[in-house]
Amino acid sequence: MIAPRRPSNRARGARQAALRPVMRLACALLWGAACGTLQAEPQAEPFDIAITVDDLPVHGELPPGMTRVGLAREHLRILKAHGVPQAYGFVNAGQLAREPDSVAVLDLWRQAGHPLANHGYRHLNLDRAPSLEAWQSDVVLGEAAVAARMAGADWHYFRYPELAGGDDAAKREGALRFLQQSGYRVADVSVGFSEWLYNAPYARCMAAGDNATVAAMRSQFLAEVERGIARMKTQARQLYGRVVPQVLLTHIGAWNAATMDAVLTRLEAAGARYVTLAQAQQDPAYADPGGGMLMQRAADKAGVQLLAVAVDGPGLELQGLCR
Length: 323
Ligand SMILES: [Zn+2]
Prior knowledge:
Elements: H1 9-18, H2 27-31, E1 47-56, H3 68-81, E2 87-91, H4 94-98, H5 103-111, E3 116-118, H6 132-141, H7 143-149, E4 157-158, H8 169-181, E5 185-186, E6 191-192, H9 199-208, H10 211-240, E7 246-251, H11 254-269, E8 272-274, H12 277-281, H13 294-302
Parallel strand pairs: 1-2, 1-7, 1-8, 2-3, 4-5, 6-7
Helix pairs in contact: 3-5, 3-11, 10-11
Residues 54-55, 119, 123, 161 line the site of zinc ion.
């Protein structure tokens, strides 16, 4: 657990200093002579991480025999087994009308003690929204279903759909001002493993009974997760001189239900300690909210090129699997 901290002026100064590029940490030094061959750190440096789950109650394709409620139960089982104290579920309330059977997902989430927050009614991407006003309406429309289940608790976090924080200054600043005036904090994202890309091929391969391909997908995905964890740590050290508290983005899909147990196990082996979203975002690294990924945003702002660690090699053509 991290001690409560508020971003002071001194902390802001330290953050700016920490953002100066630390390019002397060469790939070879960190990961052994061959950068392409990722090696385990000799000692895993502990770091804090908040787990978040997007697109409740409906995300992605369902393999045969699975239900939205079943996926939610599996997510909750895994979170409990790993001792995750809090996992915000970000809700697209518009899905409740489209798949009425999924309503129980939100209630199960609350019964398990995890909070809900807003992810827009229709999952409207701010960059592609017809106007800032249309996007704001979508945010407001998403509130009732969340507020009704969060009586007396804090649901004023907003996760930008598709992490789109505005493709011009007017949208970016207008959206942030609107969220702030509405009492929201942006739920930032510092790390994700793009697990949602696997939902469609997973559903197809399960329907085809192609267990060998599912196994190949799993080993490829978990190798990507390990590289992603290494990249996260390297880039955090490059930008801030330390592994700042992380916020993990996942989605309530079938592939996440199938792999989150293994993902959390790998994070724990790398030094993860679970914290709440508020605890993670107390860190000065989260002082300037916005769209996209935290560390990329910070690097762009500081004019720093993020270190590339062991780029993912050519892998399975996910779109073509089990067709
Ligand atoms: Zn989403």
